[in-house]
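CO-FOLDING WORKSHEET

Operator: S.A.
Ligand of interest: flavin mononucleotide
Run index: 195
Mode: holo prediction, single chain
Checklist:
[x] sequence pasted
[x] SMILES validated
[ ] output reviewed
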Amino acid sequence: MTVHNPPRASDHPVADVFLDRWSPRAFTGERIFDDLLGSLFEAVRWAPSSNNSQPWRIVYAHRGTPSFDKLLGFISERNQRWAKDASVLIVLLSKRTLQGAPARNHSFDAGAAWAHLSLQATIAGWATHAIGGFNEEAARGGLSVSDDYNIDVCVALGRRGDVAALPDDLKAREIPSQRNKVASFVSEGVVSAEW
Ligand SMILES: Cc1cc2nc3c(=O)[nH]c(=O)nc-3n(C[C@H](O)[C@H](O)[C@H](O)COP(=O)(O)O)c2cc1C
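OUTPUT RECEIVED:
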């Protein structure tokens, strides 16, 4: 058993980054430099995708810019309370078509892209927090996104900050969460009756 970054512990050995990555809400808001941002997007670049179609698209904005305020405006008020302190906000989109036909796996592939981004950020000492709580219609209109693209998720990127600065109801949640056991989602050869 690998014990890492208490209170998280794995039952089987895994690379540290899988336990180190978690989604904080307290961010410092400090500036992220372009070379680091470049390596996070580079990690996205090397994500696997159906037919190597690379359907992910990213719109991002640095804190303190009008674009940041615009992206923040798409996010639900509940999430805005902490997402406002991110260094960068990201909107992750995926192309819904592949060679003119509906693409089956565009969001799945965007999920791989998000995982690469998030793990690379962790390795670099930064943190990400995905945000599904946003107004899709507002984002589509505000960014002039055509129907050819899915708006999959927003992401807050930043360096972990002071928990004391969070609203009271969020302070207690600022710890790495746990997971179900491997046996609860893995079954050899058949679908488990216990799923
Ligand atoms: C697609 C997606 C949408 C999410 N939406 C929100 C959200 O709207 N607000 C929020 O606080 N966390 C959101 N999260 C974060 C999850 O709650 C979090 O990843 C999960 O509880 C596991 O915790 P961890 O990332 O710290 O390991 C989202 C995560 C994903 C992957």
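REVIEW:
The mean pLDDT is 96.
The helical segments are 16-20, 34-45, 66-74, 77-83, 106-123, 136-142, 168-171.
[x] output reviewed
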